[in-house]
Amino acid sequence: MFKLTKTACKMSLRRPPEVVLRCAIAKEACRRVGISPCLTSARTHVHKAAVCTELGKPLQIRTDIPTPQSLEKGQVLIAVQAVGINFADVLLCAGLYQEKPPLPFIPGSEISGEVAAVGEGVTDLAINDRVLALSRLSGFSEFCVIDSKAVWKMPETLAYPEAAALLVSYGTAFMALTRTAQVKPGETILVTAAAGALGLAAVDLGVNTFGCNVIAACGGEEKGLLVKEKGAHHVIDYTKEDMRQRVKEITEGRGANVIIDPVGGQVFMDCIRSVAFEGRIVTLGYASGDIPKVPANHLLVKSCSVMGLYWGSYSKLHPEAHAHSIASILRLSREGKVSPHVSKVFPLEQANEALRFLHSRKSTGKVCLQVGKD
Ligand SMILES: NC(=O)c1ccc[n+]([C@@H]2O[C@H](COP(=O)([O-])OP(=O)(O)OC[C@H]3O[C@@H](n4cnc5c(N)ncnc54)[C@H](OP(=O)(O)O)[C@@H]3O)[C@@H](O)[C@H]2O)c1
Asked: Cβ(4)–Cβ(17) under 8 Å?
């Protein structure tokens, strides 16, 4: 049922496979919490996780989550090292997300870590491989089981927190700019919430991969400095400046060809007024909490389009397009062309503080949880 390392195979001559797997997991658990494997006992068959037991209430830090002792065909057990926190995790734990998993659940969808065990049929991954993975839930945990189709080898140059910050933001920004907006080199892109995780990925890709002229709109001086550092050609502080007027000045009246908007509300309405003739606006989220109504007459006058994108849904509805965006991002990362920015790393025990920090609008780039010791 399990694929074992050479040492584990030798051990398996003396012990049944499930005992060998249990020992491998226990050894890894011991290494991670810093105790000697000889202390292994029943307590190493449980692990720590942050659990949502009631929507809208703080997560509970539990140390008694059973560590899986067997895997189904195609599954991988990951010893989690870091988890990227997404805005969706905040909404999910508050009960405000479009998906509502049954309680209790362990949030966390963007994971990096080491392979601790592989199930039958997994041929491209081995124990100790450094990997990144996507899962609907379960990342805020020392161990999690994920289908091997959603696990990829980590680009060697990345540390665990950066690896956990890569896929969702960059995958979404990549698909928004390519498949959805069909951006061309030299076009002008306006990115709102440009210092946030998704916005910064769009700025990075727009400047450094697609050769576009990028206008980054965000709130505050510090955020402005960061987007400039990432290469944005123009910065608008939309908490102080009139975004529409500034875009008009920067583009000499033409407007932006492509707009990436994860904010919604009034910012989206200003985007409609800042788009060029035949421009494309991609609506990606509503961080403002306000879902805007599209004034169709404005689209007619400018012959422009508003398009939506929910990147996660492509894993089921268009797996090839989803896989293409991931493969492209991993390649760009290996080539050193994109680099995620992690502004703050919290220990797993401070998962509630991390979620609050993300919601406070103070974060830039990605916020991560450090789970393992590496
Ligand atoms: N469609 C998809 O597939 C997809 C994928 C990933 C994320 N998203 C969505 O995109 C949005 C942004 O995600 P993210 O990961 O970039 O989040 P993030 O890193 O937390 O950035 C959100 C940014 O939104 C801006 N903002 C404006 N009004 C806000 C408010 N009232 N409260 C909080 N923030 C506000 C803030 O930037 P300023 O201070 O600069 O305004 C904030 O930094 C979320 O709604 C998320 O669900 C969608």
From this structure: yes
